[in-house]
UniProtKB/TrEMBL annotation:
GO MF annotation list: alpha-L-arabinofuranosidase activity
Organism: Mucilaginibacter ginsenosidivorax
SUPFAM superfamilies: (Trans)glycosidases (SSF51445), Galactose-binding domain-like (SSF49785), Glycosyl hydrolase domain (SSF51011)
Name of this chain's protein: non-reducing end alpha-L-arabinofuranosidase
Record Pfam families: Alpha-L-AF_C (PF06964), ASD1_dom (PF22848), CBM_4_9 (PF02018)
Family statement drawn from the similarity comment of this UniProt entry: Belongs to the glycosyl hydrolase 51 family.
Keywords from the named record: Hydrolase, Signal
One GO term of the biological process aspect: L-arabinose metabolic process
Catalytic activity: Hydrolysis of terminal non-reducing alpha-L-arabinofuranoside residues in alpha-L-arabinosides
Keyword match RNA-binding: no
Amino acid sequence: GAQKIKIPGAKPISKDLFGVFFEDLSYAADGGMYAELIQNRSFEYSASDRKNWNPLTAWEYTTEGYGYGTISVETAKPLHPNNPHYVQLNIDDAGQQGVGITNAGYDGISIIAGQKYDFSIYVRQISANPVDMQVQLRGDKGAVYGTFSFQTQAGPWKKYTGTITATANADSASLTVLARQRSVLAIDEVSLFPHNTFKNEPNGLRADLAQAVANLQPKFLRFPGGCLVHGDGINNIYRWKNTIGPVERRVQQRNIWNYHQSTGLGFYEYFRFCEDIGAKPLPVVAAGVSCQNSGGTWRIGGTGQKGIPLTEMKSYIQDVLDLIEYANGPVTSVWGSKRATAGHPKPFNLQYVGIGNEDKQTNDFRDRFKMIYDAVRAKHPEITIVGTVGPSPAGEDYDLGWKFADQLSVPVVDEHFYEKPEWFLKNNNRYDSYRRPKSKVYIGEYASWGNTLVNALSEAAFMTSLERNGDIVQMASYAPLLANLKHTSWNPNLIYFNNKTLAPTVNYYVQQLFSANQGDVYIPNAISFNQPGARADSTLAASCVQNSKTGDIILKIVNAGPHTATASANLAGLGIATTKATIEVLQGQPSDKNTIDNPKNIVPSHAEISVAQLGSYAVPPYSLSVIRISLK
Ligand code: AHR
């Protein structure tokens, strides 16, 4: 067994300290981690998502070889009422090659030679005779790089599936569906997934992006947002029940970040992803109000109505209780049985539920928050509720939020910091004097304004203080997590990507080094800085923790300034018998970044170091050093 540390002043650290926050912002889900390659697969885009968008956005009518006919968008006999639009092809003459539709994907479909792609489509054959169909993966210049053929059958909507193997690489391929005979056909839910999704989950995630998140070893995953959760009007509030069940029956909706949510990545997929990566799920529900920071109408489509009418709160609260039953209830319960039907009879072990996001501390908010809070506590005392204290510590909502949290004894509250690097350095002592009996803290979103090394190091310095106060700070997650380079609505982010590849930022490596080297015991006064003639300046920070499972002692030393510093580790009494340790160092010039063309510009180096050397360790300028000493 591991050796337990008996050092005066040693403090427990929350086991859930470092996690991630996922929001479908900057195409993080649709067009990002959700592996669907077809954009607008069910023809539900509309001008309410974005000006000029319509059910045929990302689609083209394809007539080749002198074929002709008409295409229309219909709603008369849909696949499902939740998925009202579909395309109808009236083909008068299929010509030599067929008539159909072509999808451009999200900025083109990236395909790899030899890889398999899973295709599916719903067709309702309206004309009498079976129709020969061909599906083609087409390269950048229209060359066919893989096909799948099938024949339609008479009757109601029917699903056809097939696998296409790409015969060449292409960065901006497209998918064409052609009918080869004169016919009338209805088409909906056209889908193409890479066969190899993350952990081979059906309706799964893009493997490289999901793996990058998994590699952070997050202890929890907050989802599905931020602002996305409360929306910009009560009709835009995220409703988890709309996002489960067969994808073609889910309710889609406008994304507050000015695009569309297919809800293909829904609550079932979020829970499964959490399980796959060993992260505790932290779903967040709106506190019965939408974003009120600009009167609830701050983007297109806001209704101006600030809260769900009180008469409808009972049913809204029931949705929150049902979420807990969906995650944890027995298969014999109404919602637990839906989880089982989806393929997961075992519970998801939900421990946390977030209520609200950066809400303005109005009576609209307070009344509704309390109603939800009381109901969840009464029915599920085992659930830890995470409340919210406004967008920034500088705003009035912050103090009001804390006052309200105190009144209700909310177990954990969510604080957000988007600040300059200097703020993170200056606030290193922020939690040292927090009143410990108060609510615990979840720093649900934080980032210094930028993706350079100096930004990342300011975050690293701050994170040492979170470890030091890991008895108060229950959880912390950098934000936002993912951004598609062609659709970035918020900067900075932790991981940038395009339709083919990704670039983890320097900030990502800081998160990874802390999370992979998290401890559960904080050891005080183990490291001091010897700055000749001066106090240690605030660009220096350090922590010492133990992972009591392995017994490993872990030192993290940050130098966010231009001069080499000297750190002295006092490790007496920690039972260290070994002479060697491992060291990972992230260092460079302050403005260094990782980019999509140079994604490994700044990555941690790995080496060995002798424990004796730690008595006087020369800390390089602009660096984070993580030293791991195994007691065994
Ligand atoms: O992380 C981006 C946004 O910042 C979140 O949606 C919101 O909670 C915050 O304002």
